[in-house]
């Protein structure tokens, strides 16, 4: 990848928009940044470029909700399972294409929105908490490793588990954090990082911080019920974009 002023400007704009959305609703940074950046570079490079900014964003999101250690204590089992899934997905990504998995992800989102529309509850998630945590944690991790987008699966799990807005933000971001750590380790082992990529990642972190601060100020003004409607709208847009990007 050639490091140029034009690329830095485009990368910074993508990071600003993606971070603003993430700060506002608590998720969405990888979902927006990855496909946009992949339009000017390849998918693998796009994922590597936003790896460091993603870690920062996840930490800011978790800390902004308060009680960081309590959140880690409560959701670390889900995050560890997600990390295992992310390791599997990342290994597959390194050696193959993930286009088919994007379609499967889009289908899972649309299926969930259909279930919500007709008030069909997935009661087994609350009745079999350990099983559902393992299933959704692994699935979210694998899809996250393949496509850099695990939010939809985790949000389906969180909404059906009746988590609050704070719990949704903390659990999803903790899973993102753990998944991204193992992904970075695996990319490093396979020699995917180089000096140029690290320069690109670190040089735009100030843009991420500014956009996150703006987004967090907007988030605090969104009531719980409206927040859940926004989540469902973003899920629909996410699925639509994944389908459009694949076909």
Plain-language structure description:
This protein is mainly alpha-helical. The chain is built from 13 helices and no strands. The chain has helices spanning 5-25, 29-38, 43-49, 51-64, 68-95, 99-117, 124-127, 129-147, 151-160, 165-189, 195-203, 205-219, 224-246. Helix 8 (129-147) runs antiparallel to helix 9. The chain is globular. The mean pLDDT is 82.
Please give a handful of descriptors for the protein shown:
single chain, 247 residues
Short description:
This protein has helices spanning 5-25, 29-38, 43-49, 51-64, 68-95, 99-117, 124-127, 129-147, 151-160, 165-189, 195-203, 205-219, 224-246. With 247 residues, the protein is mainly alpha-helical.
Q: Can you lay out the helices and strands and say which pair or pack?
A:
Layout: H1 5-25, H2 29-38, H3 43-49, H4 51-64, H5 68-95, H6 99-117, H7 124-127, H8 129-147, H9 151-160, H10 165-189, H11 195-203, H12 205-219, H13 224-246
Helix pairs in contact: 1-2, 1-12, 2-3, 4-10, 4-12, 5-8, 5-10, 6-13, 8-9, 8-10, 9-10
Low-pLDDT residue intervals, each spanning 5 or more residues = none
How many distinct helices? 13
* Helix and strand composition category: mainly alpha
What portion of residues belong to β-strands?
Answer: under 5%
Largest sheet: none
Give the strand tally: 0
Helix residue percentage: over 70%
The succession of helices and strands, N to C, reads HHHHHHHHHHHHH
Question: Kindly state the mean pLDDT as a whole number?
Answer: 82
């Amino acid at each position: 990848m050639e490091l140029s002023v034009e690329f830095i400007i485009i990368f910074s704009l993508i990071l600003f928009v993606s971070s603003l959305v993430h700060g506002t609703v608590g998720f969405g940074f990888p979902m927006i940044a990855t496909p946009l950046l992949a339009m000017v570079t390849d998918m693998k490079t796009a994922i590597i470029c936003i790896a460091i900014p993603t870690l920062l964003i996840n930490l800011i999101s978790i800390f902004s909700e308060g009680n960081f250690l309590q959140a880690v204590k409560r959701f670390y089992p889900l995050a560890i399972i997600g990390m295992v899934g992310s390791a599997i997905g990342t290994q597959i990504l390194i050696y193959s294409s993930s286009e088919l998995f994007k379609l499967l992800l889009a289908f899972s989102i649309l299926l969930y929105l259909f279930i919500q529309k007709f008030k069909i509850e997935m009661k087994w998630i609350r009745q079999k908490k350990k099983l559902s945590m393992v299933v959704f944690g692994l699935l979210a991790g694998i899809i996250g490793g393949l496509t850099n987008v695990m939010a939809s699966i985790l949000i389906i799990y969180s909404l059906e588990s009746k988590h609050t807005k704070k719990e949704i933000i903390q659990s999803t971001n903790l899973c993102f954090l753990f998944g991204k750590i193992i992904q970075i380790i695996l990319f490093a082992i396979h020699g995917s990082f180089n000096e140029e990529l690290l320069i690109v990642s670190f040089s735009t972190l100030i843009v991420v911080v500014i956009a996150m601060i703006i987004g967090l100020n907007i988030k605090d003004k969104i009531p719980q019920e409206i927040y859940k409607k926004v989540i469902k709208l973003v899920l629909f847009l996410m699925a639509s974009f994944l389908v459009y990007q694949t076909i």
